[in-house]
Write a structure and sequence with these properties.
With 623 residues, the chain is an alpha+beta fold.
Length: 623
């Protein structure tokens, strides 16, 4: 019987089979995990109609479409039964790579983006119970949903060894907690031939006879507890990589995934890139990388330093100093219970850090906003594509493949006014709220709008002209802006931070040569407009008899002087911010017939402020 249920997207996968492409997605639902399997999809790319492309046995179908390329002609779709057929066709001739549009998008990602699915997914189909999960063999309908199913649970995983990757495995620690911080089961599996296991300090210590027994016991425990996420500290580069390699060496199945789907840890495709964990149904959140993605900064990202800084707690064996490895080796030989305590403490510290920083909720909010996998860090270009491409297709256009757009042109960076060095009293800092997103939204800056400017365009810079109607990027900015305002009203700091990062990344994406939409006219229309806004704002302040002693990309430093009281200075900062915002509304309406979304804020007051003589040096002030 057909049912419709909602879930949170955990992992996405695809593989080629003799019958064609198969996609599958793991979800967390209120009723437990679910595996959605999709058959019948085909790999696809686009080429211009009318090209002299000979028929090819790998191409399953050619179909003219009512779509055209940006700044170009109508296109047709080339369909392939397998993704490897598309890749083989691309590699046969350089001409194929030059002509094929959107050929780089993974089939699982395309399936999701074309349905506007980010994290919440609604699935209609025959939900059948399998071994510990729900299985939907071929969904009748898949669509986006704002509500997400199931409260996610994470397992913190940490291993202890006698040294590096060739050293013996000593123990594996695992501890369960929910995203909202509720603790669950905890255990340590130790490679020791002991007769009995024991309860110890809030966790169960299991003695296993050898490494094979330890690995299997741990995997069985994780399968029984069935967490949705795996978390840890350098958990991919060390813990999971070590376990995967040890399983391969010992002939043990690396059974960390759900539903008998094969798990693995993949070596980086290029030097300097991280190892990648592929654990079906269980995204892997590395504490270090996700803290960096959320712009947390520490002198050191060691677990010892971060836990001391955030929690005031230390590891049971400190990271620094000589003898740490020797201490671990000695405890394993002589006092294995103490090593188990140390192993478990590391698991717990990771969970406490993630709870303290709200990092799991941040990762989930970011996935919901962008469509990126929960465990992915970086990926600004991919996030932009996931949001932008399906909307571009609805406007009747397709985009280039990554790497096809090349240009030697660059756009200028943020504007910096010459500073006036000195020691000052009562300096106001006025700051444009999210200046670059505001410029994009106000002046209709958009790749599609650049291609469809038409009559009565909005003038940009370096010859750019943008359509006044139908722009995609300003629409996305408006949606994200509303989401951030809602997050602030609800005191949802992780969501607010995620939205801020996403909005501010859009300029960086458009200014990157690695973006499929790169065009110097786009980025320059943002930065040069910013230059104009800062300089004209300075001129307006000077007409108000206010002296500007410094300005950078989105801020202006305004001197009041010693004769102002602190209360009057704050009131003046608020008045100037409101008046300048209103002036820009009137000016942009008069000059461009557009609605201004520029919003000047009074950020802070420095009672005493030192502006250094060297341009770009850091200013110092007392608030």
């Amino acid at each position: 019987m057909s049912e419709t249920r909602v879930g949170t997207l955990l992992t996405r996968h695809w593989r080629d089979t003799p019958q064609g492409l198969v996609l599958w997605f793991w979800l967390a639902t209120d009723d437990g995990p679910a595996r959605v399997e999709v058959r019948g999809e085909r790999a696809v790319c686009f080429v211009e109609q009318g090209l002299e492309l000979p028929q090819h046995p790998l191409i399953d179908e050619r179909r003219p479409l009512a779509l055209k390329r940006l700044h170009g002609r109508a296109v047709e779709a080339l369909y392939f039964r397998q993704q490897q057929h598309l890749q083989q066709w691309l590699s046969e001739k350089p001409q194929h790579r030059q002509l094929a549009l959107e050929a780089d998008i993974k089939p699982s990602d395309r399936y999701l983006m074309e349905r506007f699915v980010t994290a919440g997914m609604q699935v209609s189909g025959d939900w059948q119970r399998a071994a510990g999960y729900w299985r939907i063999g071929q969904p009748q309908r898949v669509s986006a949903h704002h509500d997400e199913g199931g409260e996610l649970r994470a397992v913190s995983l940490d291993i202890e060894t006698g040294g590096g990757f060739e050293a013996p495995l000593y123990s594996i620690g695992v501890a369960i907690a929910s995203v909202v911080g509720r603790d669950g089961a905890r255990a340590v599996f130790m490679v020791k031939p002991r007769a009995a296991s024991t309860e110890r300090g809030g966790y169960h210590l299991h003695y296993c006879g050898d490494e094979v027994a330890t690995l299997r016991a741990c995997f069985a425990w994780i399968a029984e507890q069935d967490p949705d996420l795996i978390v840890g500290w350098s958990v991919v580069d060390f813990d999971l990589r070590f376990l995967h390699q040890r399983c391969q060496r010992l002939g043990v199945e690396f059974a960390l995934g759900r539903g008998q789907d094969r798990a693995g840890v993949l070596a980086p495709s290029r030097q300097g890139q991280p190892w990648v964990a592929r654990i079906p149904g269980r995204p892997v959140i590395d504490g270090i990388e996700h803290l960096r993605a959320a712009f947390w900064q520490f002198e050191s990202f060691s677990l010892q330093h971060v836990s001391e800084t955030l929690l005031g707690e230390s590891k049971l064996i400190e990271d620094s100093g000589l003898g740490k490895l020797e201490t671990i080796q000695q405890q394993y030989r002589e006092q294995p219970e103490l090593l188990a305590d140390y192993n478990m403490q590391d698991c717990v510290l990771v969970l406490r850090i993630l709870a303290h920083t709200d990092l799991l909720r941040f990762a989930m909010a970011r996935a919901r906003m962008t469509g990126l996998a929960i465990d992915r860090v970086g990926g600004s270009v991919a996030a932009f594509d996931h949001l932008y491409l399906p909307r571009l297709h609805r406007r009747g256009m397709v985009a280039p493949s990554l790497g096809q757009v090349r240009s030697n042109e660059s756009s200028p960076g943020g504007y910096v006014l010459d500073s006036e060095p000195g020691l000052y009293d009562h300096v106001l800092v006025l700051d444009f709220k999210s200046l670059y997103p505001s410029i994009i939204r106000t002046f209709c800056i958009d790749p599609y709008g650049l291609a469809a400017a038409g009559d009565n365009p909005v003038e940009g810079f370096r010859g750019a002209r943008f359509a006044r109607e139908g722009a995609i990027l300003p629409e996305l900015i408006a949606s994200l802006w509303a989401e951030r305002d809602r997050a602030k009203r609800e005191s949802n700091a992780p969501l607010s931070q995620a939205v801020k990062i996403i909005m501010n990344s859009f300029y960086g994406v458009l200014g990157s040569s690695g973006c499929r939409f790169y065009d110097a006219r786009l980025a320059s229309s943002i930065t040069l407009r910013g230059h104009d806004i800062i300089t004209r704002s300075r001129d307006w302040l000077q007409r108000q008899q206010r002296r500007v002693i410094y300005g950078d990309t989105d801020s202006l430093f305004v001197l009041l002087g010693a004769h102002w009281s602190e209360a009057d200075a704050v009131a003046e900062g608020q008045r100037l911010a409101c008046a300048l915002t209103q002036w820009w509304r009137e000016t942009i309406a008069a000059e461009h017939a557009l609605v201004s979304y520029l919003d000047m804020e009074f950020e802070t007051l420095y009672v005493r402020f030192l502006m250094p003589r060297v341009r770009g040096a850091r200013a110092h002030g007392t608030q």
